[in-house]
Structures are given as structure tokens and as C-alpha cells.
């Protein structure tokens, strides 16, 4: 893109696109490229002001460690190495990196050694950051100085004469309380970037590109009713109108009454074609006996693709397939070559038969959830649609732990509906990022009306997050939880125990599976 000022070279960190998002939040356009991008490719960016080397799961001293084209370090631009990136800079400039005796994972306090350094302008002398490293710098690179430290490691380094910096922590995550200030100091004061990009530009660019690509052809989109596919439908619909046909597959794994609510919402708010396909019996049949989470995801994904494919074949005039894919779908589904670890698969990403010959349109692929919501509001979508909590692609299939049956899903739908209803009644729904219920594969003894019961346990889950890459459990009022539990036990058959999940991400994930 012509106004790219920052490039991020990706070494496989789970936070790479979050890092990119932080740069975009600073109104600076950035692109993420593979770590082995050549110097010739990098020189094609005429407005380039800086390069950020991401973190990664590997170690720089291993034989097949990921490297960069060393000529990049001779460019007259600012460079920031983050975690693995700092260790890589250390190695290139003849320092030493070794396995640490005291490894750092999670929150840590760094102390600023060089308070006058531009990187730490308006940053407290002692500042909380997020560490995630097993290796550490044991010998400073040549012509570098230490500018910050933690109890266990050299936390930041700076070149004596060049605008080259390294930080051992992840400034991009919200747990680094002044990470935003540090990154903006790098972008504005060190790299001298201009603020010339925002989401309005993104919308205009996507609409223009969709029009240019689609022309007078037809597009089909797999609709889920969630925020992502809704915003994708809105932005594509704004570009091409009735040339877009949305296919809504009822998997039987949706929330209570969701099929009715989604169809009503789309017919009310969109000037597009929409078709409902009820395939619930097929999904339950294919899930019979399947317990392992990844296996369930793949079965649900394959079923969705099979159903969608059958419907798509009926639209012989459609040349394009649109998806509401956003970055968390991609980063948790793709191994990005050799440089990152797969967390879980997602049926949005790939899998359609090649003979359909669709060209893919994914207008939201590089955006995080909160950015998608901002785009939705800018496009005029209703608040109740945009502020819906995220719902996983496999639906309740991964909120019923182990085997999924119609009976279990119906129980879960009832419990989940009560939890969400109560959140709205207490005006809590919009103050939490995601809330849901999981049905556990265990039964416990209970007492109801002097009778012994032996029924299911359900787990309530509510988290707060900005980017969905990290999250903390919501401190819901005890009186609220008491009211929710009371209604669940009294109104939902086959449930006699309710627990509340207080695990953060990391170490857990937001969903149980």
C-alpha cells in the first residue's frame, strides 16, 4: 500500500497482528510481512519509516532459527525488536542470548535505566509489562546500551548512534500498562511517522476494491448472524447491493431462537438477498460419538462446507465467495508456514471444493473484533447487532464439552438464554466483552424438594478484553450471580449445579474448547 510507513516482520508471535493493530490505532498504516522478506521487497515501500521485528516461539541460537536479510539493518530507518526481535538484534550485533535460569512469563516490573531515552518519554521509572520468554540476553550487543531491566533480564536496549531498539517484553498487549506510550514514542519520536490512516479510509478503500474486483458479477456469503459476517455483508452490500446473496445455515448449534432473530434482523436492516437452510439434523448425526474438541471443529466445519457447497452449486452465476473472516480466525487457524503454532482450527478459513472456482473476498481479514465493530457503526448498523458478544464459528458444538447431542444443546440453549437475559436486565451486557455458558460432561448429586438429583453441571463464563488476544474474567456482582443460578436451577431441567470460571487468557483460552 502506498502509504505504508511501518513494516512488521513476522517471526510467528501470537501477538503479531495485535502489534499491527496498535500501530494502526496510532493512525499509521502498517503491513505484516514474513520474516524472510528480502531487502529488495522492502525497498519497494517509498514511505517506509521503520521496521518492527515481532516476537516468536523459537530461539535465535538454534541451527534453523529464523533470520532476516542483514541488509535491513543498514537501512536509514528506525528498527524495533520485540522479544525474539530483540534477541535477534543482539545476535546480529555480536551480543549473546542463552536459555534463562529464571524464565519470565506474565506480568513483570521493569525499571528504566535511561530516563532521558526517547523510547521512555512519559513512562514511569517502574512500569508493569508483559513478559513471555525462556531466553534472555547475557551479553550486550556491540555499540548498544541497556536502557531498562527487570529482576531477571535486560528488558530494553538501544544502539548508541542508530535508531535501533530492542524490548524483551510485549508492549502491544494491554497488560503492559504503558506499552502504548512506548510504541507511540517509537512511531512518532524515533521513526518520525505521520498520522495518515484511519478506519474511514479503510472502509472507502474496501468498497472501492470490491467494486473494482466484482464489477457486474454475483457474490455469495456464508452468514452466521454474528458481528463479523454482519459487517462483512454490510460493507459488501454497500459496494454491490443485490449482487450479494447471503446463505444462512441453521446448524442446530445456535443460541435459543437465533434463527428467527437473525432472519428478522437481516430482512429489516439489509437490502440484500438472503436464503435460510436448515441442516440441524445433519450436524447432530455427524457429531454422534465425537468427543475431542479439534475433531468436533473439523466435523462441524466439514458439514458447514458440505451444506454451503450444495447451496452454492445452485448459484451458478456467482463468481465470488465472501467471508466474515477476521484476524483472530486466521491467527488461530494457520501455522503461518514454520514460524507459529496452531491453536485451533476455524471453519471460516478454506476448505471449499476447488471445482467451485470461487474467488475469495474477505474485507475484514486484517481487523480485530473491536475494529470490526467500529466499522459496523460507521456503516450505520444497529447497536444490538454490532454489540452482540462473539459467537464461535462451530457454535454450541464447542460449548458442549465432549459428545454433542440435541438434548445437551437444548439444555445449554436454555441456560445460556437465562444468563444473557439477566446480563441485559442488570445493564451488564455491554460492559462485558463476552459471556456464555459451557455444559460440562459430568453429573453431580443434588437435592431438590427433598429428592436426590443426579444432573449436569454448567459453567458460566464472562471476560473483559480489548483485543481478544488477552482477557481477564469479569468480576460480576455476587448478587447477580446468585440470581442467575437460582433461575437456572429452578427453570432448566437436568441441571443441578452452576460454577463460575475465573480463568484469564493466557493461560486459558476464552472458550473451553
UniProtKB/TrEMBL annotation:
<feature type="active site">
    <location>
        <position position="172"/>
    </location>
</feature>
<feature type="active site">
    <location>
        <position position="170"/>
    </location>
</feature>
<dbReference type="InterPro" id="IPR014729">
    <property type="entry name" value="Rossmann-like_a/b/a_fold"/>
</dbReference>
<feature type="active site" description="Nucleophile">
    <location>
        <position position="83"/>
    </location>
</feature>
<dbReference type="InterPro" id="IPR025777">
    <property type="entry name" value="GMPS_ATP_PPase_dom"/>
</dbReference>
<keyword id="KW-0332">GMP biosynthesis</keyword>
<feature type="binding site">
    <location>
        <begin position="224"/>
        <end position="230"/>
    </location>
    <ligand>
        <name>ATP</name>
    </ligand>
</feature>
<feature type="domain" description="GMPS ATP-PPase">
    <location>
        <begin position="197"/>
        <end position="388"/>
    </location>
</feature>
<keyword id="KW-0436">Ligase</keyword>
<comment type="pathway">
    <text>Purine metabolism; GMP biosynthesis; GMP from XMP (L-Gln route): step 1/1.</text>
</comment>
<dbReference type="GO" id="GO:0003921">
    <property type="term" value="F:GMP synthase activity"/>
</dbReference>
<dbReference type="InterPro" id="IPR029062">
    <property type="entry name" value="Class_I_gatase-like"/>
</dbReference>
<keyword id="KW-0067">ATP-binding</keyword>
<dbReference type="InterPro" id="IPR004739">
    <property type="entry name" value="GMP_synth_GATase"/>
</dbReference>
<comment type="subunit">
    <text>Homodimer.</text>
</comment>
<dbReference type="Pfam" id="PF00958">
    <property type="entry name" value="GMP_synt_C"/>
</dbReference>
<keyword id="KW-0658">Purine biosynthesis</keyword>
<keyword id="KW-0547">Nucleotide-binding</keyword>
<dbReference type="GO" id="GO:0005524">
    <property type="term" value="F:ATP binding"/>
</dbReference>
<dbReference type="InterPro" id="IPR017926">
    <property type="entry name" value="GATASE"/>
</dbReference>
<comment type="function">
    <text>Catalyzes the synthesis of GMP from XMP.</text>
</comment>
<dbReference type="GO" id="GO:0005829">
    <property type="term" value="C:cytosol"/>
</dbReference>
<dbReference type="InterPro" id="IPR001674">
    <property type="entry name" value="GMP_synth_C"/>
</dbReference>
<dbReference type="Pfam" id="PF00117">
    <property type="entry name" value="GATase"/>
</dbReference>
<dbReference type="InterPro" id="IPR022310">
    <property type="entry name" value="NAD/GMP_synthase"/>
</dbReference>
<dbReference type="Pfam" id="PF02540">
    <property type="entry name" value="NAD_synthase"/>
</dbReference>
<keyword id="KW-0315">Glutamine amidotransferase</keyword>
<protein>
    <recommendedName>
        <fullName>GMP synthase [glutamine-hydrolyzing]</fullName>
        <ecNumber>6.3.5.2</ecNumber>
    </recommendedName>
</protein>
<dbReference type="InterPro" id="IPR022955">
    <property type="entry name" value="GMP_synthase"/>
</dbReference>
Amino acid at each position: 500500500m502506498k502509504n505504508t510507513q511501518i513494516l512488521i516482520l513476522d517471526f510467528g508471535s501470537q501477538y503479531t497482528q495485535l502489534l499491527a493493530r496498535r500501530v494502526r490505532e496510532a493512525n499509521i498504516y502498517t503491513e505484516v510481512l514474513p520474516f524472510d522478506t528480502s531487502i529488495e521487497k522492502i525497498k519497494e515501500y517509498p514511505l517506509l519509516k521503520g521496521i518492527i521485528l515481532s516476537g516468536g516461539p523459537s530461539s535465535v541460537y538454534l541451527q534453523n532459527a529464523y533470520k532476516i536479510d542483514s541488509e535491513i539493518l543498514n537501512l536509514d530507518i528506525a528498527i524495533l525488536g520485540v522479544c525474539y526481535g530483540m534477541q535477534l538484534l543482539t545476535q546480529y550485533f555480536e551480543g549473546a542470548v542463552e536459555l534463562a535460569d529464571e524464565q519470565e512469563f506474565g506480568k513483570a516490573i521493569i525499571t528504566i535505566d535511561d530516563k532521558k531515552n526517547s523510547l521512555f518519554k512519559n513512562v514511569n521509572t517502574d512500569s508493569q509489562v508483559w513478559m513471555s520468554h525462556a531466553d534472555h540476553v547475557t551479553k550486550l550487543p556491540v555499540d548498544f546500551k541497556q536502557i531498562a531491566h527487570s529482576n531477571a533480564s535486560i528488558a530494553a536496549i538501544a544502539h548508541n548512534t542508530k535508531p535501533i531498539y530492542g524490548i524483551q517484553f510485549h508492549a502491544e498487549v494491554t497488560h503492559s500498562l504503558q506499552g502504548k506510550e512506548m510504541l507511540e514514542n517509537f512511531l512518532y519520536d524515533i521513526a518520525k511517522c505521520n498520522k495518515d490512516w484511519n478506519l474511514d479510509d479503510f472502509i472507502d478503500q474496501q468498497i472501492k476494491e470490491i467494486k473494482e474486483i466484482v464489477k457486474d458479477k454475483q457474490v455469495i456469503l456464508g452468514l452466521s448472524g454474528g458481528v463479523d459476517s454482519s459487517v462483512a455483508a454490510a460493507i459488501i452490500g454497500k459496494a454491490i447491493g443485490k449482487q450479494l446473496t447471503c446463505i444462512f445455515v441453521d446448524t442446530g448449534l445456535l443460541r435459543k431462537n437465533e434463527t428467527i432473530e437473525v432472519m428478522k434482523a437481516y430482512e429489516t436492516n439489509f437490502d440484500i438477498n438472503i436464503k435460510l437452510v436448515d441442516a440441524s439434523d445433519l450436524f447432530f448425526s455427524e457429531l454422534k460419538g465425537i468427543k475431542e474438541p479439534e475433531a468436533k471443529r473439523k466435523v462441524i466445519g466439514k458439514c458447514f462446507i458440505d451444506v454451503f457447497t450444495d447451496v452454492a452449486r445452485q448459484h451458478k452465476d456467482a463468481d465470488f465467495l465472501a467471508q466474515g473472516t477476521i484476524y483472530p480466525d486466521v491467527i488461530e487457524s494457520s501455522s503461518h508456514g514454520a514460524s507459529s503454532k496452531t491453536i485451533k482450527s476455524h471453519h471460516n478459513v478454506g476448505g471449499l471444493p476447488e471445482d467451485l472456482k470461487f474467488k475469495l473476498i474477505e474485507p475484514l481479514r486484517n481487523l480485530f473484533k473491536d475494529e470490526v465493530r467500529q466499522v459496523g457503526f460507521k456503516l450505520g448498523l444497529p447497536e444490538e447487532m454490532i454489540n452482540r458478544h462473539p459467537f464461535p464459528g462451530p457454535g454450541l458444538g464447542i460449548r458442549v464439552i465432549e459428545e454433542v447431542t440435541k438434548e445437551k444443546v437444548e439444555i445449554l440453549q436454555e441456560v445460556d438464554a437465562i444468563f444473557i437475559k439477566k446480563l441485559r436486565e442488570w445493564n451488564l451486557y455491554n460492559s462485558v466483552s463476552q459471556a456464555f455458558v459451557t455444559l460440562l460432561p459430568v453429573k453431580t448429586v443434588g437435592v431438590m424438594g427433598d429428592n436426590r438429583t443426579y444432573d449436569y453441571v454448567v459453567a458460566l463464563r464472562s471476560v473483559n478484553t480489548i483485543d481478544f488476544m488477552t482477557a481477564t474474567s469479569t468480576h460480576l456482582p455476587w448478587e447477580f450471580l446468585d440470581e442467575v443460578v437460582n433461575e437456572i436451577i429452578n427453570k432448566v431441567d437436568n441441571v443441578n449445579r452452576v460454577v463460575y470460571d475465573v480463568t484469564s487468557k493466557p493461560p486459558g483460552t476464552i472458550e473451553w474448547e
